[in-house]
Please model this.
Amino acid sequence: MIETFAALADPNRFRIVELLRSGPHAVNDIGERLQLNQPQVSKHLRVLKEAGLVDVQPRAQQRLYELRAQPLRQLHEWLERYHQLWDERFEAMDELIQELQQEEKSHGRSKK
Amino acid sequence: MIETFAALADPNRFRIVELLRSGPHAVNDIGERLQLNQPQVSKHLRVLKEAGLVDVQPRAQQRLYELRAQPLRQLHEWLERYHQLWDERFEAMDELIQELQQEEKSHGRSKK
DNA sequence: CGGACATATGTCCTGATGGGCATATTGTGG
DNA sequence: CCACAATATGCCCATCAGGACATATGTCCG
Model:
C-alpha cells in the first residue's frame, strides 16, 4: 500500500501511469510523449514495476509496459474502509460531534 | 492528487491516518499510541494538513486532528477512471491483446 | 557475425525529507 | 498574571531520490 503511494507520489511516474491507462507503451514512446530522457523513463518504470503497478512484455527489441490492476484494486479496497467518511450519514454524525465538543467546552459535562 | 499520494507515502503518516479513521485525536495521544516523539507527530500532521487530509480543532490547550473526506473522495474518483482495468470485460480484452501480440510475433500480420 | 536500435544500468550531483533534540509559542486554570 | 501543559518550530545530520550524462546490455536483421 505504502509502496503504491510512494510510486504514485512522483509527478513523472504519475504521468506515466496516466499514459499507460490507454494501453501498453514502449519505453521510447513514453519518453517522447512525456518529454523525458530515456534513462529516466526506464528508472521510473523500474520503480513502478517493483511496486507491482506495471508489467513488462518483450516485443522485438522493445519492452511494452502495461498497467497492472492489482495494486489499484487493492488501493480501492483500502479506500472503501474510509467510505463512511463521506457518507451523508457520517457528515451528520460529524456535526453531532462538533456539537458535543462545543458543549463540553462551555460546561464540563452535563445534559443527560 | 500527487500531494495526497506523497502525504500517504510515509509509513508514520499512513499510520496516523489509519488511527484517525476512528475519530479525532490529540497530538500527544497520537504520539503515545504510535510510539512517536511529539515533534515528529506535529510535523507529520503539518504535512497531512497541508495536503488537506486532516483538519485541526482547538480543544483547550490541545489540538484535535481529524480526517477530512475530500482528498479521499477525490482519490476515489481518480481510481474510478481505472476501474475498467479490473473488469472481467477488460481482462478478456487483455487476453485478446496478448493473443494479437503473439500472432504478430510469429508472422508479421495476417489472419484477417 | 556485426551493426543499429531499444532499453537498462552506473556514477555524480543536488535538493528534499525524516528523525532527534532543544526551544519557542500558545492556551488554561488558578 | 503565572506556571504548566500541549503543541509548534528551528537546527543539525544522515539518507534518499530524481535528473543529466555516459555507458553497458540485449535483440534483431542483413
Remarks:
- Residues 104-112 of chain B have pLDDT under 50 and may be disordered.
